[in-house]
Design goal:
Length: 589
């Protein structure tokens, strides 16, 4: 094998070590402020409570209106004013006909200065709260596409720094502007910078790790997202203004800018762009920290490997649809990613529907359920053969069980009622996190290695496009407060079913099929048959002394499958040990 065909980067740095661990932990920390910025709308736009809004209608003459018509009428204006009017005016005049009285001025009497009080996002403008989150998803969509293009000329480490600086600048402006239009504009830009930052970070992680370490790193990267969700409620307690919360979240990245000096660059990216000297410097550092052996011709091998990488043209988008992988399977994986990402974000954002008084505890509970789901997904990947089927089955179970929320008795929204509803939210979050772990790690296996990058870009872009419209689900609470979770549960079990369909084509071949457990009687009988064959027919053992024969038999070992196979292939007379089926070969411990 020529030296140019050897992955010299992996040969020198290894799959995992101290050098990788330092960069991995620092890149993981970038997930925390990203999670804060995505989920902070839970605390920056709380629903107003009764008595916190006062609607002042335009001037009108109620007496004249009543006297000029013999018909009865009532008033419907934003809930707070309609309730006040029903006790005073409507009861006084005994009216029932519907008229509309527009609010001339809205007075806010809240201790917390929120987005709703700042921009009057109530009544018909209440949908603009969901629009704010839609622009966040739009920024993530544009940022993912921009990161893919930028990585062709800008190194991942430098792009990561640019994303950090952009998030600090735009994030602070998001909290300082005084108009709604500028707020959603800068929120979109900040989300774009967040995506640039963690997309470049994930590129570095995939470049410096390999083997099982890459599986662990890819899956556990979402763990720090959950840690950020746990910390967000604690941070929000210290701020009584939505502006201050945005500034605090954005300014926290100053620490990561200082730590950025210890994040390594992607060696293969440097080699692909003929930057051999910086790549050599990185590999010498990795060999030192990981205590690895160095080839004496490392610089020559890096030059040859750089020529090999630069000659490899990246796959285009149309190539993933060239029928090497069935288009039906590609459609499946896009649909699964779209539904999974919608659930991943909307379940968190919709937790406000359970009430503002318990929102801090509920958010932390969802984060812990997400952590458990990630570890469950990691277990499916590492220790099961059909992880697509297991993840899909879990999602189907969670989605169908969520329909039981309609059976809860109608009662006041006290802590007990909220706790019962929260159980179904936690179950959905747990199952969806396990599915996300499988998707993040195993999506690339359905195409060739050269197409994995462009496939991940395709599925993530489609998922983020779905996220642009998904926040509008929160507006369906005006129809019924359980309608959004019902739609979410339906999407969940449908995409779980599609994951089971995808399992027909892909499963882990590294894990053998689990055989039935042997009974002691079967073990003694079959092991005696194998030992008898060995002692009577093996020419290698027959010439040894009795003591060597006994030692040889004690050190014999066979697999469970071989012990079962003995029942189905009895040895004919005169057959020697060499003529036994290959599955019955003996192994020495």
């Amino acid at each position: 094998m020529s030296s140019s065909s050897v992955d010299i980067v992996q040969h020198v740095s290894g799959n995992f070590g101290r050098w990788q661990l330092r960069s991995i932990l620092l890149i993981f920390l970038c997930k925390i402020p990203t999670a804060w910025f995505m989920a902070c709308i839970i605390y920056t736009a709380p629903y107003p409570q009764r008595g916190e809004l006062v609607c002042r209608p335009a001037a009108w003459n109620a007496t004249q209106t009543h006297r000029s018509t013999d018909r009865l009428f009532s008033v419907q204006v934003c809930n707070a004013y309609a309730q006040t009017l029903s006790r005073s005016f409507v009861a006084r005049w005994n009216v029932s006909q519907t008229v509309t009285l527009p609010c001339e001025k809205i007075e806010h009497h809240t201790e917390y200065k929120s987005l709703i009080t700042q921009f009057d996002l109530i009544c018909s403008r209440r949908v603009l709260v969901a629009v704010t989150q839609s622009f966040h998803a739009l920024g993530a969509l544009i940022g993912g596409l921009l990161a893919y293009q930028a990585l062709r000329t800008i190194s991942p480490r430098r792009l990561m720094l640019l994303g950090m600086l952009g998030q600090i600048f735009c994030g602070n402006l998001t909290g300082l502007v005084d108009t709604y239009q500028l707020h959603i504009y800068f929120r979109c830009l900040t989300s774009l910078c967040c995506t640039l930052m963690y997309s470049a970070g994930l590129f570095i992680l995939n470049d410096i790790t390999a083997g099982k370490a890459r599986i662990l790193v890819t899956t556990l990267s979402e763990l720090f997202w959950s840690i950020g969700l746990v910390l967000l409620p604690a941070i929000s307690i210290y701020f009584d203004d939505w502006n201050h919360l945005y500034i605090a979240i954005s300014s926290s990245l100053l620490v990561l800018v200082w730590l950025h000096r210890w994040i390594t660059d992607a060696p293969r990216w440097l080699l692909r762009h003929q930057r051999v000297e910086p790549a050599l410097r990185l590999l010498l550092e990795s060999a030192t920290l990981n205590n690895r052996m160095l080839p004496l011709t490392l610089d020559v091998q890096l030059t040859q490997y750089a020529a090999t990488l630069s000659a490899m043209k990246p796959a285009g988008y149309c190539q993933i649809w060239d029928k090497e992988t069935k288009r039906k399977q590609l459609i499946y994986i896009h649909f699964i990613w779209g539904c999974a990402q919608v659930l991943y974000n909307i379940i968190l954002l919709m937790i406000r529907s359970l009430g503002d008084s318990q929102v801090h505890v509920n958010t932390a509970a969802l984060a812990f359920a997400e952590m458990l789901g990630l570890f469950m997904g990691l277990y499916f990947i590492l220790y099961t053969r059909r992880y697509w089927r297991w993840a899909g089955t879990l999602m189907i179970f969670a989605g169908l069980c969520t329909y039981l929320v309609w059976l809860l008795p109608e009662s006041e929204r006290n802590s007990r009622r909220v706790g019962l509803e929260l159980i179904f939210w936690l179950l959905l979050k747990f199952a969806n996190a396990a599915s996300i772990a499988v998707l993040s790690t195993c999506t690339g296996e359905i195409v060739s290695p050269a197409k994995r990058g462009i496939l991940m870009l395709s599925v993530l872009s489609f998922a983020r496009l779905c996220l642009v419209f998904s926040p509008l689900l929160s507006t369906l609470t005006v129809v019924h407060r359980l309608l959004p979770i019902t739609i979410i549960a339906t999407l969940g079990w449908i995409y779980g079913l599609v994951m089971r369909l995808l399992n027909r084509y892909y499963w882990s071949t590294e894990h053998s099929h689990m055989d039935q457990v042997l009974t002691p009687q079967t073990y003694r009988r079959n092991s005696a048959v194998i030992l008898s064959r060995c002692s009577t027919d093996s020419s290698d053992v027959s010439s040894y002394s009795n003591e060597l024969k006994r030692s040889f038999k004690q050190n014999m070992a066979v697999s469970i499958a071989e012990l079962w196979h003995i029942n189905y292939s009895a040895k004919p007379e005169g057959t020697t040990q060499e003529e036994l089926p290959k599955s019955q070969s003996l192994h020495s411990i």
